[in-house]
Amino acid sequence: MNSKGNFVKKLRNSGLRPTKQRIKICEVLFKNEKTFHFTINELSKIIAEKIEEKISLATIYNTVHAFKKKGYLKEISINTDKSYFDTNTSHHHHFFDNLTKELTDLSNEDVEKIQINKSLPGKKISSVEILVKVENE
Asked: How far is it, in rounded angstroms, from Cα 59 to Cα 87?
């Protein structure tokens, strides 16, 4: 199936109508060789630069959140008012640079076994992902 066909399928699976603008959002998100991290505002700028078209922030926000809900994107909350999204949806860790605000993947091989000594009644751990915040010395 061609890329456009895959994009239409992702959009429909996410409960979204495959409009021209949403397909363009898919091109920016899923046509890259490498996975990447972004905020909604950063994605809006990337879209404007790459496809030279203005897509409303509301359309981008709704599309990204529909993709997150369906599992096509992962949300990483840095603090109460800042979230990044990741096109790599596998379980993995991150570095966050407090100065540059850059989020970088940290491979599982770079983190030793993590042991959790507490459990919540009626709950089981589904994954453990570490966010390491760094700053200049």
From this structure: 18
The domain of 57 spans 3-85
Alpha carbon distances (Å) from 72 to 86, 100, 119, 122: 9, 26, 29, 28
Q: How far apart are CA 63 and CA 15, in angstroms?
A: 10
Partners of residue 133 on adjacent β-strands:
96
Do 126 and 99 reside in the same domain of the chain? yes
125-136 tens-digit pLDDT:
888 889 999 999
Q: Whole-model pTM?
A: 0.88
**What is the count of structural domains for the chain?**
2
* CA distance linking residue 66 with residue 60, whole number of Å: 10
Q: What is the DSSP letter of 102?
A: -
